[in-house]
Write a structure and sequence with these properties.
Elements (H helix, E strand, L loop, with lengths): L1 H27 L8 E2 L2 E2 H24 L11 H21 L7 E2 L2 E2 H21 L6
Antiparallel strand pairs: 1-2, 3-4
Length: 138
């Protein structure tokens, strides 16, 4: 059961990142009319999110092949390392689509939402590893 929840969380993070980044690209282009919102949720985001949920499992498997996961001697789950990136990208892309006003405050010249996204991704990665990848010694 833990493995299915782990895959489900990873897939949701990847799907959210894909949908948010594509929505942001269209919002910045001449096709911004595509991203019209209903209750502050872009319709295009919802459509792309539903489509990207279908392909996220393939994206995860592609990354496993890309990083030669099957040939590694230590079979440490590749998503133990990559889950932080998934959390980070999902937070940044979600802020860029839904709360663009949060992108303006800065901390020493760096946008503050990047700092918070990095800290949250680090904490979420540690929590994720504790929940899903406990060693057999514990």
């Amino acid at each position: 059961m833990k493995l299915q929840i782990s895959k489900w969380l990873q897939n949701l993070g990847i799907a959210c990142s894909i949908a948010s980044i594509l929505t942001l690209f269209y919002r910045l282009s001449d096709f911004s009319w595509v991203t019209k919102s209903v209750y502050h949720i872009p319709v295009f985001f919802v459509c792309i999110f539903l489509i990207s949920i279908i392909i996220t499992d393939d994206v995860r498997n592609l990354f496993k092949k890309l990083f030669w996961y099957e040939k590694r001697k230590v079979k440490r789950p590749i998503w133990q390392v990559g889950i932080g990136l998934i959390f980070f990208l999902a937070q940044i892309s979600t802020v860029m689509v839904f709360n663009q006003e949060l992108t303006y405050p800065q901390l020493g010249g760096m946008p503050l939402f990047l700092v918070f996204a990095f800290m949250n991704a680090f904490i979420l990665t540690v929590i994720y590893e504790e929940v899903f990848y406990r060693t057999s010694n514990q």
